[in-house]
Amino acid sequence: MKITPFLFENDKLIRTIDRNGGPWFIAKDVCEALGLANSRDAIEKLDADEKGVASTDTLGGRQEMQIISESGLYALALRCRDAMTPGTVPHGFRKWVTADVLPSIRKTGGYSGGAEFDEAKFARIAAESARAVVEALLPGMIDGILAARGGCFKPSRQTWLPEHSPQGCG
């Protein structure tokens, strides 16, 4: 499955996939862009034909992601409580959908993400996201490795640095 990313407000990543010739949006991305704290509740309220699940390969293996159709995207954007409050993320998202996305689809038959899409910025955002995941998981992974090794780490000849001491390792 091909995932096509684009940016909303130049810093919010929203990924789409093609399903049966139409765009479907990764629900988590849309809910984060809208600032919806309870994304599960928001998605549950969508009609059955506006939500679904897609499987994709990731570095961690095959994963399922909740997806929403165009109709589901518009439903979330337009019914969000803050969608009519200027200056809020949901308001900006609603304006983006109604002023950019819908007119583009009507005029050209699709939405390409506009001229604002910047691959370098996308790569930076993706790298920051990956770094945050690693930083969140790394301490637990190190603790798990040390626990499995009895709290001791023995460096190999290849990884030994003179300033480290193996004191306490048997």
From TrEMBL:
User: What keywords tag this UniProt record?
Assistant: Plasmid
Q: Which parts of the sequence belong to the Bro-N domain?
A: 1-109
* Record carries keyword Disulfide bond: no
What PANTHER family does the record tag this protein with? BRO FAMILY PROTEIN (PTHR36180:SF2), DNA-BINDING PROTEIN-RELATED-RELATED (PTHR36180)
State the name under which the record lists this protein.
Answer: Bro-N domain-containing protein
Q: Which organism is it from?
A: Methylocystis parvus
Q: What is the lineage of its organism?
A: Bacteria, Pseudomonadati, Pseudomonadota, Alphaproteobacteria, Hyphomicrobiales
